[in-house]
Recover the amino acids of this structure.
């Protein structure tokens, strides 16, 4: 039974890696700045999910805290970047 | 896998299904981000995909850590609640910025000059 779980964790890691590659390609290639910010948003959520999957693989709860910090700081940075696109400065 | 020797059948199957399903939904959302043509179409795909994928993978983590531990684990609900609340907010701010940029580009000005005139 644990072999099946190990294989499903590996498959989930591969799928999330492909998703991160899609988001990174959109960051590199995005025609305008808002496309890059959108790709960045998708990239950090995928990285957070990959950390949760690492936590299931190793069985330690340290990865959960790292994932929570990535979620918090990623939201703040996305809103800061969108505010910069909106006004040209982050804090008015 | 060093810590999964003592997990019973039902939580293992539930964890495996939720993990692969959540990762596949996230990949579909990211493929939509890659393949759709316009920005306003592209906004929708990763929003839906990452929200549902985050819910699935966090529930899988809850099930797994509750099964290998002695007491139930609830703190992954923090991640689900946070992502569900913040993804629409960030995407709405981003779309309003994109609308402003598109409109000012159509009028031939930059949003920064317009903002300095307004101030």
């Amino acid at each position: 039974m644990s072999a099946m779980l190990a294989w499903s964790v590996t498959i989930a890691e591969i799928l999330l890696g492909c998703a991160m590659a899609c988001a990174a390609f959109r960051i590199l290639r995005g025609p305008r700045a808002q496309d890059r910010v959108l790709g960045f948003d998708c990239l950090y959520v995928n990285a957070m999910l990959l950390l949760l999957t690492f936590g299931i693989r190793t069985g330690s709860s340290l990865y959960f805290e790292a994932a929570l910090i990535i979620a918090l700081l990623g939201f703040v940075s996305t809103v800061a970047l969108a505010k910069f696109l909106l006004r040209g400065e982050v804090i008015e | 896998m060093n810590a999964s020797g003592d997990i019973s059948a039902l939580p293992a199957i539930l964890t495996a299904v939720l993990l692969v399903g959540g990762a596949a939904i996230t990949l579909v959302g990211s493929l939509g981000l890659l393949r759709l043509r316009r920005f306003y179409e592209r906004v929708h795909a990763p929003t839906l995909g990452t929200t549902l994928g985050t819910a699935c993978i966090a529930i899988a983590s809850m099930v797994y850590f509750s099964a290998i531990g002695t007491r139930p684990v609830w703190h992954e609900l923090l991640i689900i609640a946070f992502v569900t609340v913040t993804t629409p907010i960030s995407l709405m701010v981003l779309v309003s910025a994109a609308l402003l940029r598109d409109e000012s580009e159509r009028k031939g000005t930059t949003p920064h000059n317009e903002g300095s005139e307004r101030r």
